[in-house]
Specification:
With 460 residues, the protein is an alpha+beta fold. The chain is 37% helix and 21% strand. Strands 12, 13, 14, 15, 16, 17, 18 and 19 form an eight-stranded antiparallel beta sheet that branches. Strands 5-6-10-8-9 form a five-stranded antiparallel beta sheet. Strand 5 and strand 6 form a beta hairpin. Helix 15 packs across helix 16.
């Protein structure tokens, strides 16, 4: 095996000297993502500019038994882009073009490093939009979204990233380039290989280009904000709205801790004396929007809302939505370490889960703000702590274990949108069971027998 310095020279020949980083200070930003307390330092960072360059880099790494970790903007929240010490990071942010918007076929083609918000903006120039909207969409890359199968605020009505991936270009562990899927609405020719790579967290191949489905922009939208005196009433309102056969575009939840942090951070004008807020949004035909908004307001009132307000215009709608989008940033200002959890339970168990988290925080004397996509049962209990305080971190880990146990007891999943990465792999076998877990490992071994791509993620 060659020394890292020798390998760097060969990477220079593939991507150009200016796109290879080896200086210790230059490597530091590529050793962590948005996950607390997980970091390492790679030996080299390479920034390829094309699929051909990615393939050449992967082949060179394979020849020299160098582990490869793929990275976009580094916004992940499960440690998925944290490299093993001494490994290679392939950062794909130079591959950032939106290649084509095909308005006649309702598709959009983009390179993996295109920013998610830019993808949506490109679609909107044609009267279309890209529905998945993760909280990090202004800085996250579309390739990273596909690799993690990202969700977002509109997931309840519109689904997650997987529902919009029609095709992709992917570099396999041996450096071969595969093109999976196509622009056809219906295609059942063989195994759906593209779906295998969606959510694979860079462990099976490196996604370099994606073909996405886009939709016409809805004619109308209405945003409501409901304030509740307790957490349980807010959770029960969500279940009641769904039971009434209403599927809102957005149905988001913030507890009092989160509300106060957001108000202090952004000054939006939220009511800070309530225990919980629901952000409710409906879109579609104007008549249907008006009807659904009226019914949701009525249901909220029947389930204990002390106040329900409706945004008077688009500007106010965006302002209210920004309250939810800024939740993580607002909470992160409180303590040195912010641990953003991600669990999902069936909607009928939301009230029970929200109460459990609140009781758990009190039991372990921890500061926890909870928010999330309550319409699809996806909660984000966020621990505000200090990783330097070992005793407090022990209490945090006890609480995290308890949350996972409760989630699985209620028929939920240990991650709704952040992925397994390093942060959740200890619990994966417990959720899946032996046969399903072994099947996943079999797929990994078949596609990446040397374990070269993103080692240490999903499995040990």
């Amino acid at each position: 095996m060659k020394e890292p310095g020798q390998i760097a020279e060969e990477f220079h020949e593939i991507v150009g000297a200016g796109n290879v980083l080896t200086e210790p200070a230059d490597l530091i930003p590529y050793g962590f993502d948005g996950t607390a307390a997980l970091r390492a330092r790679p030996s080299v960072v390479v920034l390829p500019g094309s699929t051909a360059e990615v393939a050449a880099c992967v082949r060179l790494a394979a020849e020299n038994d160098i582990p490869v970790t793929t990275r976009g903007s580094g916004t992940g929240l499960s440690g998925g882009s944290v490299p093993p010490p001494g490994g290679l990071v392939l950062c794909l942010v130079r591959m950032n073009r939106v290649i084509e918007v095909d308005a006649r076929n309702l598709t959009l083609r983009a390179e993996c490093g295109a920013i998610t918000a830019k993808v949506d903006e490109a679609a909107r120039e044609h009267g279309l939009f890209y529905p998945p909207d993760p909280g990090s969409m202004k800085i996250s890359t579309i390739g990273g979204n596909v690799a993690e199968n990202s969700g977002g605020l509109r997931g309840l009505k519109y689904g997650v990233t997987r529902d919009y991936v029609m095709g992709m270009e992917v570099v396999l562990p041996d450096g071969k380039i595969a093109r999976l899927g196509n622009g056809c609405v219906k295609d059942v020719a063989g195994y759906s290989m593209k779906d295998l790579f969606v959510g694979s967290e860079g462990s099976l191949g490196i996604i370099t280009e994606v073909l996405l489905k886009v939709l016409p922009v809805p004619e109308a939208r209405r945003t409501l904000l409901a304030a509740f005196p307790n957490l349980e009433d807010a959770a029960e309102t969500v279940s009641a709205i769904i039971a009434a056969k209403i599927i809102p575009c957005t149905l988001e939840f913030l507890d009092q801790m989160t509300i106060r942090c957001v108000e202090d951070f952004a000054g939006i004008g939220l009511p800070t004396d309530c225990a919980a807020l629901l952000l409710m949004e409906t879109d579609g035909h104007p008549a249907a929007v008006a009807d659904e908004a009226e019914k949701m307001a009525q249901i909220a009132g029947e389930h204990g809302a002390v106040e329900v307000t409706t945004a008077k215009d688009e500007e106010e709608s965006l302002r209210l939505a920004s309250a939810r989008r800024s939740a993580f940033s607002a909470l992160a200002r409180v303590r040195p370490t912010t641990i953003l959890e991600d669990v999902t339970v069936p909607r009928t168990h939301l009230a029970e889960m929200v109460s459990f988290i609140a009781e758990l925080a009190e039991k372990h004397q921890l500061t926890v703000g909870t928010f999330g996509h309550m319409g699809d049962g996806n909660l984000h209990p966020t621990f505000l702590t200090d990783e330097r305080d070992k005793e407090e971190m022990e209490r945090v880990h006890l609480a995290l274990d308890a949350i996972v146990e409760k989630t699985l007891e209620l028929g939920g999943t240990i991650t709704g949108e952040h992925g397994i990465g390093m942060a959740k792999k200890a619990w994966l076998r417990q959720q899946l069971g032996e046969a399903s877990y072994d099947l996943m490992k079999l797929v990994k071994t078949a596609l990446d027998p040397k374990g070269q791509l993103n080692p240490g993620k999903i499995f040990d």
